[in-house]
Amino acid sequence: MTELRITRVFDAPRALVYRAFTDPDQLAAWFGPVGWSVPRETVEIDARPGGVERFTMVNDDDPSLTSPTNAVFVEVIENELLVGEEEFAGVVLRVRLEFHDEPDGRTRLELVQGPIPAEIEGNAREGWASSFTKLDALLAGA
User: Across the strands, what pairs with 56?
Assistant: First the structure.
């Protein structure tokens, strides 16, 4: 098992990047790697400790392929921190998102996800990168 660590800088203010993770309409617009989408009606987000985050990614070519998320927020600091946990295959998977100000109104996101099996770390990294490319496009239109 390993932890996935990703740092990404977005060309948008911290509050806008944070909102993209906590607003159901926005999350549905960008989350999931290219080739997958999140139907808005599957998204439920209650961004507070003990609140839920639920949504389902659906494969664009074969809608019978789905990947549901059913997580609980354990730490939330508006515009600064989101930490969620989800049980997956008997293991508690944790995702930690830290939002930091960068020069010129940009935002640095620090993501830590784990524990995950080492053999899927590369796929998870590619999935986040693909999703973040879609998020870049959403933020550019904000």
Answer: 68
CA distance 100 to 102: 6
Which tens digit of pLDDT belongs to each residue from 33-84? 999 999 999 999 999 999 999 999 999 999 999 999 999 999 999 999 999 9
Q: Give the pTM.
A: 0.94
CATH number, domain with residue 53: 3.30.530.20
Which residue carries 């990168």 as its tokens? 129
Among candidates 93, 14, 92, 84, which has minimal Cα distance to 49? Answer: 84
Rounded distance, CA 121 to CA 80, Å?
A: 25
* 27 in Cβ contact with 38 (< 8 Å): yes
- CA pair distance 44, 122, nearest whole angstrom: 28
33, 12, 3: which is closest to 109 by C-alpha? 12
Q: Which residues pair with 5 in a beta bridge?
A: 112
Give CA–CA dist 43/55, Å, rounded: 4
Token pair 């098992």: residue: 1
Domain count along the chain: 1
Can you give the residue range of the structural domain that contains 27?
Answer: 2-140
